[in-house]
Amino acid sequence: MHILEGKGVTKNFGGLAAVSDVDFYVDKGEIVGLIGPNGAGKTTLFNLISASFTPKPGIITFKGVNISGMKPYKVCRMGIARTFQTVKIFGDFSVLDNVRLASLFGNPKKPSEAEATKDAMEMLEFVGLNKDINSPAKDLTLANQKRLEMARALAARPELLLLDELMAGLNQTEVTEAMEDIRQVRDKGITIIMIEHVMKAIMSVCDRIIVLNYGKKIAEGTPQEIVNSKTVIEVYLGEDTNPGSK
Amino acid sequence: MNEKTIHSLKNVLMVLGILIFILLITIPFFASPFQVILFASFLMYVVLTISWMIFSGSTGYVSLATAAFFGIGIYSSAIMAKSVPIILVVIISGIISLVIAALVGALTLRLKGIYFTMFTLGLVELIRNFLTWYEIKFTGTRGRFVPVVDNDTIYWIMLGIAIVLLVTTYLIRRSKFGLALRSIGSQEEAAGHSGVNVTAVKVVIFAISAFFMGAAGAIMAAKWTYVDPGMAFNLNLSFLPVLMAIFGGMGNLVGPVIGAVIFAYLEDKLLTQFPYYYMLIFGIIMSVTILYLPTGLMGLAQRLWKRLAGGQRAHS
Predict the structure, then answer these.
(1) I need a labelling partner for A86 at 20 to 30 A (CA). Which of A31, B141, B263, B284 fits?
(2) pLDDT per residue over A118-175, tens digit each?
(3) Range of A64's domain?
(4) Residue B186's closest chain A neighbor by CA?
(5) How far is B199 from chain A (nearest CA, A)?
């Protein structure tokens, strides 16, 4: 069953079609990669799925329910959580409160304060941030702020997790750790869509990849298929202008 | 500084608090009528400042609508006071302000930053002009008389409003709702995506803050006995609470209270003794505060305290 499905999803900013007529689906338990050059519309598509924007025209359904036009908090409680390309943590909150908030408000089971704290601790432990839980979140390193965003997203107990460039700005070791985290999240039964420029990560983690360019879907398939796709290579490396010189 | 001294310090503060509380309640028994009314106006500024702060300080949306809700309280009171007991007038006026704030908030809290601020400023002017037009067109007079209430009652009711407000604020800060509020001020987009119904939270707190502004207006109307739209919707009352909160420091509850009291006292002194320089001196104090004490008086006090406490720890 498709947990998430988009039909003819379009979003215009003035005259610019940031996302145009994109059909897509995501199956339960999948890790789907979303790639494309800068400005291809990846983050816009995330904003559409998480209900920051409403597609016009087009519809997006989550677990069979049309979520276009819903408010972000509703979509979050329905089971879609996300992280942000540029980290958006609550800087003046403690590390714990960042995660506790999402547990208190995002988890559809409406946990009590005590349960929320316990849940938040569990998530922080999962991402390895259980040491300085009372220090202000703004004091964390970038890598840890990204982990914090992931813990916060997980605290809402989502069924679908949207990761927007989780690995940008991380070093090699941190990328490897993040890849491991993503696999573990999937093993918890959470479906994942990730935007990523770190190709090594995308290729090894994803079950399926969707490629966007100028707001249009230009390719879709397994990592193997994408690597060998002529259109994708053209978009990323430019057209072969002089075929004779090979 | 060890645990024991901190503990005994807390006890001292608690006793001090209770003493201040008893003093505040008994003021009308020993102070002159002038002092009672002066204290009532201090309390009015405390109420306006704290109620401004529970909305704007936590959500980061700067509202200049204080005068609008205060004025709505004044006019509700002017209309009702002849036929309804004063305590009910105060509560109903607060509720009228709350309902209007909820409606206005639901319509405008989608506006961000400066646009919201400009709207709230416009709201004060809009209501003032509408009322002036209405009074002249339909009642034929500019102002209204409000039945006299004795000074002690005015003082006690204002004190009651201030106490209920402080308790409410304290409870909100400690609650789950308070966490949601602060998350909006900190990072609104992330708050929404973490399951916080940001619009509802903003509207609710905007309405709660308007309740206290309206209640304060209702009782002040009884002090002034004559009100007209220009007095009731005076923009100074939108700006002063903002200045008082900045001056006192918004980090905790004590800061704005102290800021409001000192400012109100200064206003009274300066107005009577230096009527021509009053605004100039106000301006200088504000500029100095913003430049050198961005966290207000309380911020300064906390820094001094830390230095003191830190110094002692280093010795022990």
Answers:
(1) A31
(2) 999 999 999 988 888 999 999 999 889 999 999 999 999 999 999 999 888 888 888 8
(3) 2-79+158-245
(4) A90
(5) 10
